Amino acid sequence: MDAGKKIKGRKRHIVTDFLGLVLAVIVTAASVSDTAGGRDLVDRIAAEHPSVSEIGPFPSGVDALMRIWLLLTSNLMVSGSLSCCG
What's the pLDDT tens digit per position in 16-28? Predict the structure, then answer.
């Protein structure tokens, strides 16, 4: 949806633990989709923090395909709703 943005800027993709401590941050161009940034972030979390076993809940902007991709390609347990509308 936002991959076609013509606006200059940056997006920040952030993962925190349950205490709110930052585990990883990726900064991308505004034109990068949330799904693409999220996939890169999940790959980074899996590589740098192998003890992480669960991910979620997701913000409402994360689509169902991203959640399904997580279930199929990672060893992470997905928490929260898998509906398209969060």
Answer: 888 889 989 999 9
User: Pairing relation of β-strands 77-78 and 10-16?
Assistant: unpaired
Closest CA to 65 of 41, 35, 26, 86: 35
Question: In one letter, which amino acid is 4?
Answer: G
pTM of the model: 0.62
Q: List, in sequence order, every residue forming a beta bridge with 12; answer none if it has no partner.
A: 27
| 48 touches 74 (CB < 8 A) | no
In terms of DSSP bridges, do strands 22-29 and 10-16 run parallel, antiparallel, or are they unpaired?
antiparallel
Our count of domains for the chain comes to: 1
Q: What is the domain range of residue 42? A: 10-78
Rounded Cα distance between 76 and 51, Å, is 10
- Which 3 state secondary structure label does DSSP give 62? coil
d(CA 68, CA 64): 6
**Length of the chain measured in residues:** 86
